[in-house]
Amino acid sequence: MTTHPATLGRFFEDYVVGDVYQHPMGRTITDTDNAWITCLSMNTNQNHFNEHLAATNPITDGKVIVNSGLTIALVLGLSVIDMSQNAVANLQFTDVKLAHPVYVGDTIYAESICTDLRLSQSRPYAGIVSMVTRGVNQDGEVVISWKRSVMVATRESGIGQNYFPEVKAPSLTELTAESSAEATR
């Protein structure tokens, strides 16, 4: 029997400059998502919540536009599984471009390309991964992009690994045997 440890994401050694990571999940934005982030962030621009006013905005096709803070947070979150699950720290975001409006009902996907790798000079347990990330909607329109650098743990560091608690008893093998014995009674 093999136990697969609770490890998620990539470590510094797993990245290759030029590799593209199409992040595995997409997310459809709801009206509730947009309303919550707009209230939470205290963004009072009525184009995010006033349909009557938004209908007069020539840029948004007369529709309520999704708060760009939500778009940024969502695309960042979609990229974490591949690009920064084992990050020690975010270091830099630059060149954020909001290329296309996002509306309630849009489904957003994300992909990243690794653009640079280097071991950290001051932190021997990590390296710097640089990337370009972009979010696209269900029609393939690029809605947002940015450059980002993160400090990612090396596998050798042990960071982000071996955190699953030691289970006291019974073992899964014992539970399986008990269940099998009960089923045959």
Overall structural domain count: 1
The arrangement of helices and strands along the chain is EEHHHEEEEH
Structural class comes to alpha+beta
Please state the average pLDDT score. Answer: 92
Detailed description of the structure:
Strands 1, 2, 3, 4, 5 and 6 form a six-stranded antiparallel β-sheet that branches. The longest helix is centred in the middle third of the chain and has 16 residues, at 68-83. This protein has a single domain, classed as Roll (Thiol Ester Dehydrase, Chain A), CATH 3.10.129. The protein has 185 residues and is an alpha+beta fold. The model has no long low-confidence stretch (mean pLDDT 92). It has helices at 31-40, 51-54, 68-83, 172-183, and strands spanning 20-22, 27-28, 87-98, 107-119, 126-136, 142-153. The chain is built from four helices and six strands, in the order ββαααββββα. InterPro entries: HotDog_dom_sf (IPR029069), MC_hydratase (IPR048274), MCH/BMMD (IPR052342).
Notable characteristics:
185 residues; alpha+beta; 23% helix
Per-chain topology:
Layout: E1 20-22, E2 27-28, H1 31-40, H2 51-54, H3 68-83, E3 87-98, E4 107-119, E5 126-136, E6 142-153, H4 172-183
Antiparallel strand pairs: 1-4, 2-4, 3-6, 4-5, 5-6
GO molecular function: lyase activity
Pfam family, one: MC_hydratase
Protein name: Dehydratase
